[in-house]
Design goal:
The protein is an alpha/beta fold. The chain has 2 domains: about 350 residues, Alpha-Beta Complex (Amidase signature (AS) enzymes); about 80 residues, no CATH class. About 40% of the residues lie in helices and about 15% in strands. A hairpin with a 5-residue loop joins strand 10 and strand 11. Helix 2 runs antiparallel to helix 3, helix 5 runs parallel beside helix 6 and helix 9 packs across helix 12. Bound molecules: glutamine. The site of glutamine has 13 residues, from loops.
Amino acid sequence: MINTSIKQLSAALAAKKISSAELTQLYLDRIARLNPELNAYITLDEEKSLAQARAADERLANGDATGLTGIPIAQKDIFCAKGWLTTCGSKMLHNFVSPYDAHVIAQFNNAGAVTLGKTNMDEFAMGSSNETSHYGAVKNPWDTARVPGGSSGGSAAAVAARLCAAATGTDTGGSIRQPAALCGISGLKPTYGVVSRYGMIAFASSLDQAGPMARSAEDLALLLNVMAGFDERDSTSLQREKEDYARDLNKPLNGLRIGLPKEFFAEGMGSDVAQAVEAAIAEYKKLGAVIVDISLPNTKLSVPVYYVLAPAEASSNLSRFDGVRYGYRAPEYGDLADMYEKSRAQGFGAEVKRRIMIGTYVLSHGYYDAYYLQAQKIRRLIAQDFTEAFKQCDVIMGPTSPSTAFKLGEKGDDPVQMYLSDIYTIAVNLAGLPGMSIPCGFGANNMPVGLQIIGNYFDEARMLNVAHQYQLATGHHDCAPQNIGL
Ligand code: GLN
């Protein structure tokens, strides 16, 4: 039962083969068994989850269920959820119980989904390995000596280990796609503005976007249908007609133009990753797609630009954590300034402090023009590269990550090496485009490889179609880690 699609689970609930309370209990039992090792969840609340499941069962009995009613979902701990501890992976919020729901949470609640728990993540979503979490690293279910990727590593591990039917993530520079790739699952970052950021703890507001993480493209479409939509409480939420993201899943791919950026297939990518990605491209040719060689000339500037802009925005967003209104406050301090300083010094971890310092520096008088302004200009050039590319192709493909999952501790001391994990994903956020990752086989040490699919603005339905057709033709997305009792 726990190894089936959302559609099948929903059909089983509708046919009364299982109740949502039973299904939720099934997952909770698995979590109790496997989470102590994987550390994918930070917070669990069986009573709350089961109460939601019972309410879903009532809805199912009354005939006003949606496709997600009664489906157990894991929520990244970056989303404020009423009555739930919401830590964002930080000591700074170790005691913060949210008094309200994020828009994403409210959308799932309205659909009747069950919140199974809050998933572990890099502190304030800053990281690519989940090792910056105050609550300890998450382990990759495929090999517990390896990282699950980050920052949505808890969600990715939970989906891969079948500790939920699906999960949510957020992606500022790759945090949905990279962990999806490293854990062998599917993940989608929508076009900027498609999913409301209300109640999603801000990292870099002009880049942050929430999206679904699941076992298949078909599941992603169902989840995105619930997550997307205009919300007046987010000033960057886009007012658009409601769409059905599953509408094109079954279209054939004849004539689909796939752009392969030469910069993605250059040095830096592991040969095992290259092999799996090339095999996926070959599969697409069999499905009727044509290959177009394209160039994204400013690709190499995306990481440096991101590490000016994201810390700049983070330094401003994180100034609210001062120990006054909520969150961590140093137990001992002198005057008010000392209380701010000690609370922030003790409440934030090393990576977060590094970003706050970089951000404050690039925004300061005398450096603003040289760094921040310059980075904004290059951001525009990066976006223009994509606009040019999409004149020649329908979707862009390449690797999601240059390597498969690395060992825990392997990159911990070298921030720049860690930052390069997102070399293929970051430009998509800078341009505000939608991007996704789907499993496309295995590389060295039998670890999963992700294929990245980048679409034009608002082309999520087509991307999901492109991913779904591949998943119908291959079985990679159905592979699950061994030793998790399936
Ligand atoms: N790994 C990138 C970072 O550390 C991206 C994180 C994200 O997308 N939230 O900033």
